[in-house]
Amino acid sequence: MKNLISFGLCILLLGSCGFIQIMPKRTESFEKYRSQLENDTNSFYKTVDYQEFIEPLADSTFLITWAPWCPHSALLLKDLQYLIPAKGKPNWVLICTSYDLEAIENVTKETPKVKPFCKNILDGEKYGSIELDRMRNISSKLIDSAMTFTPVIYFKSQGSFKVVNKKFLFNHAIK
Hints:
It contains eight helices and six strands; from the N terminus they run ααβαβαβαβααββα. It is α/β, with parallel strands linked by helices. Strand 5 and strand 6 (160-164) form a beta hairpin. The protein starts with a helix and ends with a helix. The model has no long low-confidence stretch (mean pLDDT 87).
């Protein structure tokens, strides 16, 4: 019986190896990459804030915060490839809470169709130099509740945001 359990665990371990994705380590990279973003006028990435970027979003727009160290975020980015309309723009935008540009690059290279939408990074000058502070501050601004996880899918309706799930996103996104 002991050998059968050991064999079963070994098969389970070997069988799951194809499903395990090693995510980048979560690092606080604000100081490291802030000057690069500020000084490189040709940088693909840009910092965004509430007034200039989020507030003007139209109703029926999804705002998705994500982080490159989060496996759930990486899976959502892969799923978003199916929500890019053939013509026009999608009704969702992405904002990364991390400043780790190398980790963002590593995760988004897996999703080349979604990568063009991954250029927005939440402004650390306004929302905090620590990533958890940025998550907490943006969610407090959007829904009056402090959320410190990713991904979070917000939906703008009648001028205000609410948190929705992935099923809601897939049912209401423009495809």
